[in-house]
Write a sequence for this structure.
């Protein structure tokens, strides 16, 4: 009964130290392994699993204690930029696929061709960024290739944010359009690349076939797949053919899925989890876990937390487009109290687009200073000064139209300030935060309705849309129980806040901000990121919320060999039993 909340099954401690049982966050059921991200499959755990099977060209992580290029788990060994910053030549290591075939430039070109031809279906795509920034792929030899750029770019951004997205894939196995089809060079024609893409993505939707489908057996990473249950349990087994620098230390990793954090804590107490977590509110009972042979560590993230607005929602989109309305909403969020009380001090306020939990040269003074301090009275006045009146506890637009003293363009008379959110389930802290926000918004005169769903459902139901789309009924979305967005090493916002950005769920668009984002990717001046930080702290593209630790980890004594990655990926190959 105690373990009934675990959807993936629980293994007893192995004793032989050949296994590790790792608890995935509550309701974060893995649902994708294909090394090409698509909408609805963006949860961080999917990426972590995929990367231990198919290593990135250039792996950036914080597993060594600071964010940097992890060459042990990268397929590339070197990247030489041209003097004019308009191209880069990559050197591949002397590596092999698990079937013995060498990893070559052709495998990188295969990924490049598929993504270039199908970029609008790639979740990481933002117009004007990868793959648009790469004008040509030139093979030098089997272990060297050159990417030409459409202009000069900031090297730091290109390396950490763009090149790190490249995932070499086994062209000699995957370049086909059906299970019985012959492998050829289909990807080198537009029509062929589309057909191969469709084949791979369709195969990726068959989760119950992952472990048995021969397609997924050819890997480059330190692990291969033993089992993958639709209920959430994933078993990884050591790739005995691995020849990279980041080999596995433990033969089998069992990834366990839970419906609630409470169910996972019960598993910790039963001793069936080696690496798990507790709620921030349970830090006061830390000793009950250390007495069982665990140690407790906070896992902080290079991230921001927010609720995106749907600016195209037919009911509230026009209201959300008014800056004063977004200011009033933000002023109704008491981030400092939420971070201190609900998260037991394991969260930090977020006032803009740059992570604030760690010191960096990217954070502007304006963002750090909190442009819109909490004040329900100021928020109410802001609304009444713009044509809203309080009626039966809810603000109603009584002076429609544009101009001073009016509600704003597109906001009709009689519009009630009523917002609804689809929020991630399975987190006590998130549920409590939503309730606290509901009470605070009510003080301002804003109705706030809450509906919950598992995180994968939230992500799939709250994507980009046009106003007349049936799927555009969502208004606000929250999927940030462990942080909404974990950045690459360079925290530019091209995917999140640029017009048409691949993860710009609410369709925020501001031409001036687009120019600032463009500067962050092309200019080497530190002012580029500072100006961007200031602008979005002031323009409020989303509702900024406290950024929690990724998790408060509970780790069995004797399990070590790694640092918890601030980019929120987990790295099973680095885990080791030290005693």
């Amino acid at each position: 009964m105690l373990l009934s909340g675990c959807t993936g099954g629980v293994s007893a401690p192995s004793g032989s130290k050949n296994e590790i049982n790792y608890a995935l966050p509550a309701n974060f059921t893995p649902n994708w392994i294909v090394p090409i991200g698509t909408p609805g499959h963006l949860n961080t755990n999917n990426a972590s699993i995929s990367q231990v099977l198919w290593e990135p060209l250039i792996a950036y992580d914080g597993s060594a204690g600071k964010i940097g290029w992890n060459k042990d788990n990268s397929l590339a060994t070197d990247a030489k930029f041209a003097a004019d910053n308009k191209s880069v030549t990559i050197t591949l290591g002397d590596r092999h696929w698990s079937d013995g075939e060498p990893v070559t430039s052709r495998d990188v070109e295969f990924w490049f061709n598929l993504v270039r031809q199908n970029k609008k279906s790639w979740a990481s795509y933002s117009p004007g960024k990868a793959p648009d920034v790469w004008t040509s792929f030139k093979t030098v030899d089997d272990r060297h290739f050159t990417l030409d750029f459409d202009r000069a770019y900031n090297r730091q951004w290109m390396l950490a944010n763009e090149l790190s997205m490249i995932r070499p894939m086994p062209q000699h196995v995957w370049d086909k359009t059906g299970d019985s089809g012959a492998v050829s060079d289909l990807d080198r024609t537009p029509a062929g690349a589309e057909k191969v893409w469709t084949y791979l993505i369709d195969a990726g939707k068959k989760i119950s076939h992952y472990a048995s489908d021969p397609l997924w057996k050819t890997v480059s990473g330190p692990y291969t797949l033993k089992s993958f249950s639709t209920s959430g349990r994933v078993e990884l087994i050591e790739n005995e053919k691995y020849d990279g620098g980041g080999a596995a230390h433990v033969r089998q990793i069992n990834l366990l899925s839970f419906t609630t954090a409470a169910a996972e804590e019960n598993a910790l107490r039963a001793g069936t989890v080696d690496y798990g977590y507790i709620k921030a509110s349970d830090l006061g009972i830390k000793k009950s876990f250390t007495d069982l042979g665990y140690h407790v560590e906070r896992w902080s993230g290079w991230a921001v937390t927010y609720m995106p607005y749907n600016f195209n929602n037919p009911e509230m989109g026009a209201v959300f487009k008014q800056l004063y309305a977004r200011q009033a909403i933000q002023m109704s969020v008491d981030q400092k109290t939420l971070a201190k009380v609900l998260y037991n001090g394991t969260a930090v306020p977020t006032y803009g687009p740059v992570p604030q939990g760690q010191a960096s040269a990217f954070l502007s003074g304006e963002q750090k200073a909190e442009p819109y301090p909490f004040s329900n009275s100021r928020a109410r006045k802001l609304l009444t000064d713009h044509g809203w009146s309080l009626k039966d506890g809810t603000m109603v637009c009584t002076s429609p139209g544009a101009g001073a003293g009016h509600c704003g363009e597109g906001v009709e008379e009689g519009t009630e300030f009523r917002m609804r959110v689809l929020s991630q389930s399975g987190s006590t802290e998130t549920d409590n935060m939503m309730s606290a926000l509901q009470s605070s918004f009510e003080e301002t005169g804003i109705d706030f309705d809450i509906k919950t769903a598992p995180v994968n459902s939230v992500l799939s139901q709250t994507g980009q849309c046009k106003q007349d789309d049936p799927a555009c009924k969502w208004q606000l979305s929250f999927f940030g129980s462990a942080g909404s967005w974990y950045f690459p090493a360079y925290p530019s916002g091209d995917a999140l806040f640029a017009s048409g950005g691949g993860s710009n769920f609410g369709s925020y668009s501001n031409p001036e901000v687009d120019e600032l984002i463009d500067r962050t990717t092309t200019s080497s001046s530190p002012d580029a990121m500072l100006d961007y930080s200031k602008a979005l702290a002031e323009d409020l593209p989303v509702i900024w919320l406290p950024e929690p630790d990724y998790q408060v980890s509970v780790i069995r004594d004797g399990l070590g060999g790694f640092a918890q990655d601030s980019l929120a990926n987990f790295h099973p190959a680095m885990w080791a039993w030290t005693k």
